């Protein structure tokens, strides 16, 4: 059997027990001639974390937005299919999406905090978000919210609940929004650079929460990140994107240590080797630090 056919048989077997399948997906925006995504295939299993890495404009956010049906007015799926646990999402309309978003698929953005309603206290919006998806009393929902705010590292969760979003710092808003998405324990969590606005400690705390969600709830995740250290620390699989295509896809160690695509090699060479301290700050388990070949020159905080 050739390597290629063995690979494709393995890929098919993996896709068969997938939580999420993206098959031959192409997406275009009406204002652009070039498609934003072209023939993208990937899958995410229950309890699996996939990191998407790639240059700006490569289509990472578009992929997440297509999965959760939020491409916006100008965006359109022109080919392919997306299924969640066997349910096709591609033809879903308004009310259908309401049953999917939140509890089935959660999403956190780089600036999720900005999506909090500025004229309502955290308490009322958090409790409403919980109770619209979970059968809990107000009191139970309040306690659950406090627990999640605490777990994400917010020191005085009762105070957070009593404030309006603009009374919180940007990082506090972001963590509140992440806590809200996690509280619903979605089957699939899409996270678009969720920690990029946070300091290193807050970042480590959020990553720890993501790991707990994966380990305890078997949540599948797609995490978009520019940081190889984050991809290496949490992801089971890595996808490398460029110009709307998924150029490379595979187990994290395999992609980072033995990249097949020249662009992946270029990308890895452009960052210095993972710094051991950063690795340990981000990653609390025993996973060994993968070696990344041929580091680039000089200091670069985007390691
Ligand atoms: N709403 C939109 N309307 C028109 N074009 C868009 C829209 N959103 C994204 N695009 C285009 O689609 C392509 C992919 O963009 P996308 O935001 O998915 O990339 P990305 O990899 O997430 O980039 P970044 O890392 O900078 O967030 C780009 O060419 C971008 O200009």
Automatic annotation (TrEMBL):
SMART domains: AAA. It is a peripheral membrane protein. It is found in: Cell membrane. InterPro entries: AAA+_ATPase (IPR003593), ABC_Ni/Peptide_Import (IPR050388), ABC_transporter-like_ATP-bd (IPR003439), Oligopep_ABC_C (IPR013563), P-loop_NTPase (IPR027417). Residues 20-268 form the ABC transporter domain. It holds the Pfam family ABC_tran. Belongs to the ABC transporter superfamily. This is ABC transporter ATP-binding protein. It comes from Paenibacillus medicaginis.
């Amino acid at each position: 059997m050739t390597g290629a056919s063995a690979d494709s048989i393995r890929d098919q077997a993996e896709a068969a027990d997938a939580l999420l399948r993206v098959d031959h997906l192409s997406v275009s925006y009406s204002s652009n001639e070039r498609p934003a995504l072209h023939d993208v295939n990937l899958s995410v299993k229950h309890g699996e974390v996939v990191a998407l890495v790639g240059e700006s404009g490569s289509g990472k956010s578009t992929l997440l937005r297509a999965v959760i049906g939020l491409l916006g007015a100008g965006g359109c799926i022109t080919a392919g299919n997306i299924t969640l646990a066997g349910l096709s999402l591609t033809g879903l309309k308004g009310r259908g999406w309401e049953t999917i978003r939140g509890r089935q698929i959660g999403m956190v953005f780089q600036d999720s905090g900005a999506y909090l309603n500025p004229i309502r206290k955290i308490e009322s919006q958090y409790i409403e978000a919980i109770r619209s998806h979970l059968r809990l009393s107000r009191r139970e929902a309040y306690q659950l919210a406090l627990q999640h705010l605490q777990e994400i590292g917010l020191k005085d969760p009762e105070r957070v609940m009593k404030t309006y979003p603009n009374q919180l710092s940007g990082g506090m808003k972001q963590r509140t929004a992440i806590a809200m998405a996690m509280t619903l324990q979605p089957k699939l969590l899409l996270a678009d650079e969720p920690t990029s606005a946070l300091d290193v400690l807050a970042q480590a705390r959020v990553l720890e929460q993501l790991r707990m969600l994966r380990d305890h709830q078997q949540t599948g995740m797609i995490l978009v990140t520019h940081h190889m250290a984050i991809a290496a620390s949490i992801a089971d699989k890595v996808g490398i994107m460029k110009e709307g295509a998924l150029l490379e896809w595979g187990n994290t160690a395999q992609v980072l240590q033995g990249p097949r695509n020249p662009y992946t090699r270029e990308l890895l060479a452009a960052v210095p080797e993972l710094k051991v301290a950063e690795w340990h700050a981000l990653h609390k388990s025993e996973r060994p630090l993968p070696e990344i070949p041929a580091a680039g020159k000089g200091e670069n905080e985007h390691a």
